[in-house]
Every structure is written in C-alpha cells, then in structure tokens.
Design brief:
It is a single chain. The protein has about 375 residues and is an alpha/beta fold. It folds into three domains: about 1-140, P-loop containing nucleotide triphosphate hydrolases (Rossmann fold), CATH 3.40.50.300; about 145-215, Helicase, Ruva Protein, domain 3, CATH 1.10.8.60; about 225-350, Zinc Finger, Delta Prime, domain 3 (Up-down Bundle), CATH 1.20.272.10. The protein contains 17 helices and eight strands. It has helices at about 10-15, 25-45, 60-70, 90-105, 120-125, 125-135, 150-160, 165-180, 185-200, 210-215, 225-235, 235-250, 255-275, 280-285, 290-300, 305-325, 335-350, and strands at about 1-5, 20-25, 45-55, 75-85, 110-115, 135-140, 165, 205-210. The chain has a six-stranded parallel β-sheet, sandwiched between helices. The radius of gyration is 25 Å and the shape is globular.
C-alpha cells in the first residue's frame, strides 16, 4: 500500500503496521516520517531499536534476519531499521528483504522500517521492492517543487506560530524566502526555527515583516542542473541567473551544465522537425521520450519556437561546447560560465515570449 508523506499522521492514528518502506531524496521529510513512526511505535511498547546500514554487495544479511527472529530479554517489542543508501540491496539482499516482508505479516512484536533513496522505475519493479510494497506500507518522499515552496514555507511558519504580512507584502516575503532556500529543505527548516527564536510568536502577533526575513534568512539554496533545465524552459530568467551563479559557486562542471542545456535544445528541434513532417505533438513527444514535467513544458514552449530559432540555438550550443572545452569563439565570451549564461538566457527568452498568434481564417 502506498501513502504520501502528508498522509503519515492520519495513517498512524488508524493503527501501526509492521512494515514500512520510506524512499526519496528529501532527508528532512524522510526523517520526519521516520520520527512519526518511531513515536507511534514507542507509545505502543516498542522500546528496543536496532539499526543496520547496508554497505556494499557483501553485506551480511544474516544479522538482519536474526534480529527479526529474536526476542529481547528486556523488551517485548523491537524496531528494526534497515538503511540502504545505494538503493541496491544486491542478490542476497533481495532474497532477505522478500523474507522479511513475508515474515512481517501478522507479526506484532517486530516493526521493520526500510530506508531508501530515490528509486528509478526499474528498481521499483524489482521483486524485493514489490514484496515490500505488497506486505507493508510504502511512502515516497516527493520533492517540494519551487512553485509550491512559498506555500510550504507559510505552513511551516504557522507550525511555529509565525506568519507573513497579508497581501502583496507577505507574498513578496515568501518568494524571497523560497529563493534563499530552494533545493535545500533541511536548511529551510533550520531557517524557520531560527526565525522562531529571533522573533517569538508573542511579539507583534507573530507577523514577520519582509525586513525581518531579509535580515535573518541566509542564502542556503542548492541547485541541480535538472531544475535549471525546468527554469529555462519555464521562461524564468531571474531564477535561471540565480541557479547558474549557484551552480558555479558549488563547483558544478561546466560541461555538465552545457550538456543539459544542449540536450534540451536538441530535443526541442527533434520534436519540432517531427511536427513539421506531420506528426501530432503528443506522438512526437512520445517518440523522443519526453515525459512528465518536461512534457508539459515542451507543450507550452514549442508554439513559441520557430524552426529557424531552434537552428540558431543549436548553432549557439555548438559554439558554447567549444568554449567550455577551452576554445575561443568569435563574438562570444571567453569564460565558460559567461557563455553558459548567454546560451541559457537566449533559450529562456524565447520560452518566455508570447506564443505566435494563430492566423484567422479569411472571411469570404
């Protein structure tokens, strides 16, 4: 059975199960879900806890299986936590996890929690994960996307008795806060706790001004090239510049940033060419393996992009490829990062432009 992170509290109120699998790349939300399970378990007499971290293909699973089958002399109920940082338990681990999942049925003395990173589609279809999902509760920790991050921050502020000003000033504060902590929920949580200490809820009714947030919240945002791609295609130039500056400061490889931008340009051109040959847009997207959020972005921006504009972008990407590898190009910056800024903003500007109007049929 699958549930979301937001459903864990209501789920636990209805009763604790004997097997949980938590997977995803948001450490804060995964830890909070784990803490909720632990708290509920302690209230029901699970007073002993053991933790096992799977390291490499030669991990000894016998200790984990023995822990599940043994009873403590000092506690009637125990929690077994199994961490698999790689998300790959290996052949022996696959067998062991299936055994643990089956043994969890009806076992009210042992609570097993399996902790995993974000899993790809192939892993989720594996026998061991299917067993965990079949015999227990699986919770996928989804990332908080940038467009809902201000709302997430507002909810977290409310949890410590704080809120922003009403109307436009408050929205400005939340957007500023989100810009400072994007991609780093753990740091966002810490910044909210800091605000609660600096500006207690009993002062001014717990209302935070923009100036208070600006002075207190540090720039702890973390970016990745995949989110950069989404920002470019969404036509968000200010966010794109922040992300490029952040990626440069974090030491991201120029060639990886270029590859991400160039791959988007190549994919856009392939889809546009397919449409020019008469293929419907949905078919062209499927043929080029464009899925999920990127599919929606492509659907929005392709009407804005002419074949000639995409050809120019492809030529620009070719020039920047040389620059990030140490070559000079006429009329382009010598710095790889400056060239990446120019390429990204060139594409971003086209994606932000209004769609070309559809010609009206001439009246007879």
């Amino acid at each position: 059975m699958q549930i979301s992170a937001g459903q864990i509290a209501n789920h636990l109120q209805r009763g604790l199960k004997s097997l949980y699998t938590l997977h995803g790349d948001e450490p804060l939300l995964q830890q909070e879900a784990l803490d909720a399970i632990r708290t509920c378990a302690r209230a029901q007499g699970f007073s002993e806890r053991s933790s096992h971290t799977v390291t490499g293909a030669h991990f000894d699973w016998s200790a984990v299986l023995a822990a599940g089958g043994s009873m403590s002399l000092f506690a009637d109920k125990q929690i077994i936590e199994i961490r698999i940082p790689s998300g790959k338990p290996g052949k022996d681990g696959s067998v062991a996890l299936q055994q643990l999942a089956q043994a969890a049925q009806g076992n009210e003395e042992v609570l097993t929690v399996v902790l995993l990173p974000r899993l790809d589609k192939a892993t989720k279809t594996g026998a061991w994960f299917a067993a965990l999902e079949s015999y227990g509760i699986t919770l996928e920790v989804q990332p908080v996307e940038r467009n809902v991050l201000p709302q997430w921050i507002a909810q977290r502020l409310a949890g410590v008795g704080l809120k922003v000003e009403p109307g436009e000033p408050g929205q400005r504060s939340l957007q500023f806060f989100a810009d400072r902590v994007e991609g780093n929920l753990l740091a966002a949580h810490q910044e909210i706790q800091k605000l609660a200490l600096l500006f207690p809820a009993d002062l001014k009714g717990g209302v935070l001004s923009f100036e208070q947030i600006e002075s207190a919240v540090g720039n702890v945002a973390r970016y990745d090239v995949f989110k950069l791609s989404e920002a470019v295609l969404a036509g968000q130039p200010e966010r794109v510049q922040r992300m490029l500056d952040g990626l440069q400061a974090e030491g991201e490889a120029e060639v990886l940033v270029h590859y991400t931008l160039a791959e988007d340009i190549r994919a856009l051109k392939r889809v546009k060419d397919a449409m020019g040959q008469g293929r419907p847009l949905p078919m062209a997207l499927r043929e080029n393996r464009i899925w999920g959020n990127k599919e929606r972005l492509f659907e929005r921006v392709l009407p804005r992009l002419s074949a000639a504009a995409l050809a120019d972008l492809l030529q620009s990407a070719h020039r920047v490829d040389g620059i990030v590898k140490g070559l000079k190009q006429p009329d382009w910056p010598a710095s790889g990062w400056q060239a990446l800024h120019r390429l990204a903003l060139q594409l971003c500007g086209l994606c932000a432009a209004p769609a070309a109007p559809i010609p009206r049929a001439r009246q007879g």
